Amino acid sequence: MKCVSSVVRRFTTQELAVRRLYASDPEFKSLCEDYSIATDALERWKADEGKAEDYRQLIRELEDEINEYLER
Fold this sequence. Notes:
mainly alpha
């Protein structure tokens, strides 16, 4: 459950909602998995500013989508 941990670290005040959605909503689970992959990739590519910025943008977009789920 590394991917849910990545999301919980970002949305600490909504941990319970994150865990519930992760367990019950396949689309949210997929978002969490994508977020985890993107944050891992950013860590790997942080020395390459171009690629790092691409992953930062992707992470921001995924965070927006995750936040939309949490606000429902």
